[in-house]
Amino acid sequence: MSAQASGATVEPGVVKSGAAGSAVFPGSDSRKYNYFEPKGRKATHYEDMTVDVQPDPERYLLQDWIISFPDGTPTYSKDWTAAKSSNWHKFRAVDQEWERTHYQRQSTICGMVQNTIENGRKSGAPARFDPAWVKILQNHLGAYKHAEFGLGTSTMQAQRYGYTQMVNNAILTNSSYKLRFAQDITLYLSEIALDLPGFDVNAGKQHWLEDPIWQGVRKSIESVMGSNDYLEQYFATNAVFEPVVGELFRSGFLMQAASAQNDFITPAVVSAAEADYERNLANTVELFHILGTDAQHAAHNIALFNKWLAKHAELALDAANRLQPIWSQPRVKVVTFSDALAQAKNRIRGIAAELGLTVPAILS
Amino acid sequence: MSASLTLNKITAQKGITIAEAANRVADLGWTPSYVQEAMTFPTDYKISKTPRDPMKQVLRSYFPMQEEKDNRVYGALDAALRGDMFRNVEPRWVEWMKLFLAIIPFPEISAARSMAMVGRLAPGEELRTGFTMQMVDEFRHSTIQMNLKKWYMENYIDPAGFDITEAAFGKCYATTIGRQFAEGFLTGDAITAANVYLTVVAETAFTNTLFVAMPSEAARNGDYALPTVFLSVQSDESRHIGNGHSMLMAMINDPSNHQLLERDLKYAFWQNHAIVDAAIGTFIEYGTTNRDKNKESYAELWHRWIYEDYYRTYMLPLEKYGIKIHHDDVAAAWDRIVKKNYVHKTAQFFAVGWSANFWRIEAQTEKDFEWFEHKYPGWYAEFGDFWKWYAKLSVPGETNILFNSDVGYVYPHRCWSCMVPCLIREDFVCDEVDGKIYTYCSEGCRWTHKVAFAAEYEGRATPAMGRFSGRREWEDCYHGWDIADAIKDLGFVRPDGKTLTAQPHLRFDAKDMWTLDHVRGHQLGSPLRGFRALSPIEREIAVADYRKGFTINPCH
């Protein structure tokens, strides 16, 4: 905008307007963040909001970190994961999430879920659910919400440790999605319970803690939560647990079986998590692909990821197999466990192939 | 239709109560039995009581509420452009935003990371929902502030300084102060960092001057964007204050925590004062062109927000739990602001160092002098001549004020603790820690480094407490460098490769702008190196001499 167009009065040497373009001088047209290399031809808004906000001695931190832990570990350390990178700054989240897009998406999901539940309840839908299915929702969806919560808290913990803002923010939004979904299920079950006499909202936790069907899942989740390597947590969550157990139960059971039991609400509630996962998976694959093809550390990283894959796949597959009885519980059977598991194995094999990893024999 | 009939009444159906929803969500956690949960950041505190979530909010109401807040913020930014805000904005103000907004996104995202540290420490799951929201809030604050900065860069007359913002943050002598603030949130003892330093002190007390007082001054300078963004940010802080207080209440009944709480409240208050008051006090008092004598000065704002609102209504009630409150430090901080001119000396230091900045600082004028004298009697006698010198030496070709011996300014030592220079000369102290001599701006900062950040506190082992590290004296990084080379190394040069990003004026004309050649020929040096080289007797003399201060020569 010119000074004339802005209406500013310009006297020689005196600029009255603070608007862009009202004077020309060295640097007056430098209107882009110029301290990082965009991934593409031009920086995206996500990159502008994210890159280099968490600094480090390799990127401009002249005086180094200025507080350390008592053992000398600095505020951020590359040693917090066994994975190695010749450039931790390369990763960009595929979903390009920054605060505004995150709230828009989360808020839209909250609205969608609430509307679905409200309208379903208004039309008396829960009362028409098949009674056997109601038990499944009460006991098994009720148990599964704790798995989602475990992944949410695990990634909440993990977002402290990454070496760059890009890595940590991708893990943070993953945590936010998981914790929202855990609450979505909790509140959904609590609300339909109002319309279903005898529905026990506490049964889910009991099954989570005690039912043999769920102990494999709980062990698998606790193993993710128990890892001291934040990238192992992130990898195990999205590259292993989600395809083998999460999607298996959500898409491979709930979303396919529900409608045949007169339940059109649960698939809508659960669908949000499937969409969340697609984004979290895309970010995960991008990060681990970069690490797995690192110019200096590819071999080390691939060996490490194969180790993580083998460890968590064994736990996840055991967890999946123990869930099998649930597929027999609906009155109307529309999907078999073996088909769903085959699909889940296919999914993780695809992810492993994308990352150049060796698929453990148990997944063949 | 009946007058009392509303859509709400027609469509409402029975639901669960907010309290019930919060309780159910709080029951999502469990104690792992197959695998022990991962190591978390350690603390020396004991937390035996389950903290309660005072807000009782769940994510399904949180996300739409935040989206609505965002819609208002982004709508307001659009409206500001349509209303031609930048035509009327005061460049003196926006220039300081180059510094402020370079600093603040990192403390914000550090607070998000900090939730990972505190979230796992408390027994029970109730407050975890509160910490989750705070984590996402801080992600919001960090990126909404990066967006605001980009918006200034795109629309303000002089984008230089905004364009290098995060690189500048890593290198500038002033932004280091903000890093001390932020790293304090997420390094060392998890409760000291994430609960006491971040939520109980920084967020509960000092965000009021940061995010409430400062936006008011922005509006007085034609900047409606900063208040829009920062008051929206501040609206999240009430939840964080609730998280902090709840966690504090879970620890305060255990007398074994009292010693550590007293240490941390003292450290956190003093360092927040030293850092936040230096920076925000300068922005508010020196970044403004509004000299309305009826408006509150920073000292008056401090009295309202920190003394009345925080000290009297938040800190003092902690005494009933048996906590000794550091009344003397509150009084000392107040004295530093009203009697010892802390803010004015900080602004003066920033102005002396203008050539190594990445923002412009304009000289204060007669109109400013009158206001300062009205609000801070005696100001003119101490600072009037300095600002006249500053104006006089703002023309390219004059000797850079940093090296101009005609002025009489004596370059200060750097405080090893808060990293603000030792500007109140009479309070200057030094001490030996682990066999090395360090300099401090005050007794509070000496105590922080030597006593608080140590492996033992008053005979009690404190194995989780952090340590100061890094090259904490900025001047040491460029010891022996020509300032022109240092500025180039910092990257504080405009795209033409020669004009300085910083300028000591607001004249937007190439002929008035300083280049590297104008400042070349003077060496930077580390005051601490020279100080350490002195013998103990010489050092004693040097300390006494430093405490006497200096006098600015008359400017004719």
Secondary-structure element pattern of chain B, one letter each: HHHHHHHHHHHHHHHHHEEHEEEHHHHH
Low-pLDDT runs of 5+ residues of chain B are none
Low-confidence stretches of chain A: 1-12
Q: What is the total tally of β strands of chain B? A: 5
Instruction: Name the biggest interface.
Output: A-B, 108 and 120 residues
In short:
Chain A: This is Aromatic/alkene monooxygenase hydroxylase subunit beta. The complex is a heterodimer of chains A (364) and B (556). Chain A is an all-alpha fold and 364 residues long.
Q: Could you characterize the architecture of this molecule?
A:
The complex is a heterodimer of chains A (364) and B (556). Chain A is mainly alpha-helical and 364 residues long. Chain A folds into 2 domains: 1-31, no CATH class; 99-363, Orthogonal Bundle (Ribonucleotide Reductase, subunit A), CATH 1.10.620. Chain A contains 13 helices and 3 strands. Chain A has a two-stranded antiparallel ribbon with strand order 1-2. In chain A, β1 (10-11) and β2 (14-15) form a beta hairpin. The radius of gyration of chain A is 25 Å and the shape is globular. Chain A starts with a helix and ends in a 10-residue tail after the last helix. Chain B is an all-alpha fold and 556 residues long. Chain B has a single domain, classed as Ribonucleotide Reductase, subunit A, CATH 1.10.620. Helices cover 57% and strands 3% of the residues of chain B. Chain B contains 23 helices and 5 strands. Chain B has helices at residues 7-11, 18-26, 59-82, 85-88, 91-103, 105-119, 126-155, 165-171, 175-186, 190-220, 225-252, 258-286, 298-315, 327-338, 342-352, 366-375, 379-392, 443-452, 474-477, 483-490, 516-519, 527-533, 536-548; strands at residues 429-433, 436-440, 456-457, 460-461, 467-468. Chain B has a two-stranded antiparallel sheet with strand order 1-2. Chain B has a two-stranded antiparallel sheet with strand order 3-4. In chain B, a hairpin with a 2-residue loop joins β1 (429-433) and β2 (436-440). The termini of chain B are far apart. At the A-B interface, α2, β3, α3, α5 and α6 of A face α2, α3, α4, α6 and α7 of B. Chain A: GO terms for molecular function: monooxygenase activity. Chain A: Pfam families: Phenol_Hydrox. Chain A: This is Aromatic/alkene monooxygenase hydroxylase subunit beta.
